[in-house]
Amino acid sequence: MNVATLFDTMHAPAVSMLIYVTLFLISLLTVISNLLVIITVCHFKKLHSPTNILLLSLAVLDCMVGFLISFQIMLIDGCWYLGDIMCSLYFVSDYAITSASVGTMVLISVDRYVAICHPLHYPSKVTAERAKICVIACWISSVLFHSLLLRNNLQKPGRYNSCFGECAVVVDYIGGIFDLLLSFIGPVTVIIILYVRVFVVVVAQARAMQSHVADVSLQSSVSVTAKKSEMKAAVILGVVVVVFLICTCPYYCVTLMAEDDGVSASSVAFLLFYFNSTLNPLIYALFYPWFRKSVKLIVTLQILKQGSGDTNII
After folding, report:
1. CB–CB of 63/35 below 8 Å?
2. Which of 281, 223, 255 is nearest to 95 (CA)?
3. Tell me, which fold does domain 2-310 have in CATH?
C-alpha cells in the first residue's frame, strides 16, 4: 500500500494559498485549544483524576497532531525539503500519534463505561496510577507497532521515492490490513459498543428515577431533572461518536478506494481526519464547566498567582 502525501500534485497558486491558509488555521487552532487543556489539567490539582489524566493524554497527542499538520504546508505542491530521514520519521510520528490518540479515546470510553455501569467498583478499579500506566502503554505500543510497520522505510529512507523532493512511504498489504483493524475498525467497534451500553444505562436510570418518585410534590422537578440528564447524556454521547466517525470514516474509506483503484486521497477527507484533533478539546473539555473557568483564569493570567493551583474550579 503506497502511503504518499496528500498534496502530491501541483496546484494553481490560488488553490495552493487556500490550502496553505486552511492548514495553518487548523494547525494553530489545534495547538492553542489543546494547550489550554494541557495547562488546565496540569496546573489545577483538583483536576488530577483518572478521567482528566486521559483527557490530558488526548490533548498532548492532539497538540502534536497540530504540529504535524504544519509539515503538510511544505507538501502543498508535492515537494519535501527536509530530507528522506525526516520524511520517514514524519510518517512514523504521524501514524503513531494518530493511533495513540484513537487508543486514548478507547480508554476514555472504558473509563466512562466503568463509572456509569459499575459505579461502586469505579474508585477501586480506576485509579490515577492505573490511568497513567494505560496511557504509557498506549503510547509505547503505538510507537513500536508503527515503527515495525514502517521498518523498511526507516531502514532505507527514500527507497520508495520516484524523484527528488518526493516524500512517500510504502506499507505492505498485510501490514496495511493489520493497521486498519488495530487503528480504526477495532477501536471504533469498542467505542460504539461501550457508548451504546452507557447510553442504555443512563436512560434506564433516568426512567427508574421517574417511576420511583414517592413525593408527588417533587414529581415535576425530578421529572424535569431526569429528562435533562437523559438529554444531556444523549447529546454528549452522540457528539462523541458521530463527530469521531464523521471525521475518520471518510479518510479510511478513501484510503481503501485508493488501494483498489489507484486514486489519490481526497483533500476534504484528509483535512476532516486531522480536524478531529481540533474538535476533541471542544467535545471532551468544553462540556465541563471547570474548563471554561480555567480558560478565564489562564487568559487573565490569574494562574501566575501563588497558590492558584489549589483553586477549586470544579
Report:
1. yes
2. 255
3. Rhopdopsin 7-helix transmembrane proteins (1.20.1070)
The string of DSSP codes covering 70-111 is HHHGGGTTT---S-HHHHHHHHHHHHHHHHHHHHHHHHHHHH
151-177 pLDDT, tens digit per residue, is 887 887 777 666 666 777 777 778 888
Specify the 3-state DSSP secondary structure of 135.
helix
Dihedral angle of Cα 123, 128, 131, 133, to the nearest 10 degrees: -130
Question: Strand (E) positions, 122-222?
Answer: 168-170
Apex CA 12: angle with CA 269 and CA 169, to 5°? 50
> Given a cut of 90, is residue 299 above it in pLDDT?
no
Q: What is the dihedral of CA 9, 93, 24, 289, to 10 degrees?
A: 140
Among 83-97, 236-250, 262-276, name the one with the lowest average pLDDT: 262-276
**CA-CA distance, 297 to 314, in Å (whole number)?**
13
